TrEMBL record:
One of its GO terms (biological process) is tetrahydrofolate biosynthetic process. SUPFAM superfamilies: Tetrahydrobiopterin biosynthesis enzymes-like. Its EC number is 3.5.4.16. InterPro entries: GTP-CH-I_C/QueF, GTP_CycHdrlase_I, GTP_CycHdrlase_I_CS, GTP_CycHdrlase_I_dom. It holds the Pfam family GTP_cyclohydroI. The keyword NAD does not apply. This is GTP cyclohydrolase I.
Length: 89
């Protein structure tokens, strides 16, 4: 797991938007691992929203990206149920 954390750090240190960060992590894991699919979920609190006083202080933005089997709805539903999230698009 520490290698996954380091991978996330590599991409997160760059000037970044959350959607691209999620996609880069997914692509890197897909390219590196011999697996049938990868699903990445990134949950973040954005300080820019909090500092500007946006209505929902502490609001979390969630982005998803997937490859392989997780492109199929049935695999996504299973994944979401395992992590306790509602199905997203």
């Amino acid at each position: 797991m520490s290698k996954v954390a380091r991978l996330v750090e590599v991409f997160a240190r760059r000037f970044q938007v959350q959607e691209r960060l999620t996609a880069q992590i997914c692509q890197s894991l897909t390219d590196t691992l011999s697996t049938e699919g990868v699903m990445v979920v990134v949950e973040a609190r954005h300080l820019c929203m909090q500092m500007r006083g946006v209505e929902k202080q502490g609001a979390v933005t969630v982005t998803y990206d997937s490859s392989g089997k997780f492109e199929q709805e049935e695999w996504r539903r299973e994944f979401y149920s395992l992590i306790g999230k509602n199905s997203i698009g």
